[in-house]
Design brief:
The structure is a single chain. The protein is α/β, with parallel strands linked by helices. It has helices at 16-27, 39-49, 62-70, 95-116, 141-160, 177-183, 187-197, 206-218, and strands spanning 7-11, 31-36, 53-56, 77-80, 124-128, 165-171, 174-175, 204-205, 226-229. The strands form 2 sheets. A 7-stranded parallel sheet has the order 3-2-1-4-5-6-9, sandwiched between helices. The chain has a two-stranded parallel sheet with strand order 7-8. Helix 4 links the parallel strand 4 and strand 5. Helix 3 (62-70) packs parallel to helix 4. The longest helix has 22 residues, at 95-116. The radius of gyration is 17 Å and the shape is globular. The protein binds NADP nicotinamide-adenine-dinucleotide phosphate. The site of NADP nicotinamide-adenine-dinucleotide phosphate has 31 residues, from helix 1 and helix 6.
Length: 236
C-alpha cells in the first residue's frame, strides 16, 4: 500500500475520473481531499466515501484554490481534473466559450500549482490532457490548444518543480457524466461508432483511467510523461 497515509488532493474529484481516483486512492490507504464547484455533488460523494475531505473550489478562482491548500498541512499527490468541455468553432462561438478552455485548463493548472507547491516537497502532480491534442475534431480547436499546452507545461514543470514529479494523463473517450452530457441524446450512437473503430472495440471507464493516475502517482521514476488512456484512439 504505497499510498498509505499519503495526502492526495483531487481537484475535480466529485464525479467521473476524479471520483474513481478518490475511491482507488482511499482503498490504498490514502487520505483524500476532493474539490468541485457543486456543494451538493461533494456532499453526495462524502456520504458514500465516508472519510474523504471536501472543499468547494472553482479552478478559475485563484482565491478558492489558495483556501483549499491553506487547509492542508502537506500534500503528497495532487491530481488536476476539474474542467468542462465548453468550446466551439473559432469563427462562430462566443468569445466567452472560446476563452473557457484556456481559463479552466491552463490558468486552472497555474493557479492550482502555485497554491499547492508550497505544501509539497516531493510526490507527484498529475495534470489532464486529452485525445484532442493528437486527434482533434472540428469545434474543439481551443480545447486542443489548451490540452496541447498542458502537455508542454507537463514537460517544462518536470524540470522546474523537481524533485516533485509532473505527469499528465491523456484520456480518449471515457464513460463519465461529462461525456454523456457532451453528446446528450447522441451518446449511445457515439459509443457505438467509437467501439466500431477503436482497437479496444469499446470506450474506456473512469476506473481504468483512475488506475493510470495511481500508476503515475506511485511510479517514482516517471516524470514529464504523457500517459495515453485512449484505447488506441490516436492511432486510427
Ligand atoms: N470523459 C472523457 O471522455 C474525457 C476525455 C478526455 C479528457 N477528459 C478530461 O478529464 C477531466 C475529468 O473529466 P470527467 O469525464 O471525469 O468529467 P466529470 O465527470 O464531469 O467530472 C469533472 C469534475 O471536475 C469538476 N469541475 C468541472 N469544472 C470545474 C471547474 N471549473 N472548477 C473546478 N472543478 C470543476 C466537477 O465538479 P463540479 O461540476 O461540481 O465543479 C467534477 O468533480 C476533464 O478535464 C475532462 O476534460 C475527459
Amino acid at each position: 500500500m504505497q499510498l498509505k497515509d499519503q495526502q492526495v488532493v483531487i481537484i475535480g474529484g466529485s464525479s467521473g475520473i476524479g471520483l474513481a481516483t478518490a475511491q482507488l486512492a482511499q482503498a490504498e490507504g490514502a487520505r483524500v481531499t476532493i474539490t468541485g464547484r457543486s456543494e451538493e455533488k461533494l456532499r453526495r460523494v462524502a456520504n458514500t466515501l465516508g472519510t474523504v475531505k471536501t472543499a468547494i473550489a472553482d479552478v478559475t478562482n485563484e482565491k478558492d484554490l489558495q483556501q483549499v491548500f491553506e487547509a492542508c498541512d502537506r500534500v503528497d499527490h495532487l491530481v488536476l481534473l476539474g474542467a468542462s468541455l465548453a468550446s466551439g468553432k473559432i469563427c462562430d462561438a462566443a468569445l466567452e466559450d472560446l476563452s473557457r478552455p484556456i481559463t479552466e485548463r491552463l490558468w486552472g493548472a497555474i493557479h492550482t500549482i502555485r497554491a499547492a507547491a508550497p505544501k509539497m516537497s516531493n510526490g507527484s502532480i498529475t495534470l489532464t490532457s486529452g485525445l484532442f491534442s493528437a486527434r482533434p475534431i472540428a469545434g474543439m480547436a481551443v480545447v486542443a490548444a489548451a490540452v496541447g499546452g498542458i502537455e508542454a507545461m507537463t514537460r517544462a514543470l518536470a524540470l522546474e518543480l523537481a524533485p516533485i514529479r509532473i505527469n499528465a494523463i491523456a484520456p480518449g473517450y471515457i464513460d463519465t457524466p461529462l461525456l454523456r452530457a457532451a453528446f446528450e441524446d447522441q451518446y449511445e450512437g457515439v459509443v457505438k461508432a467509437q467501439s466500431a473503430v477503436l482497437p479496444t472495440q469499446r470506450i474506456g471507464t473512469a476506473e481504468e483511467t483512475a488506475k493510470a493516475i495511481l500508476f503515475l502517482m506511485t511510479s517514482g521514476f516517471i516524470t514529464g510523461e504523457i500517459l495515453h488512456i485512449d484505447g488506441g484512439g490516436r492511432l486510427i
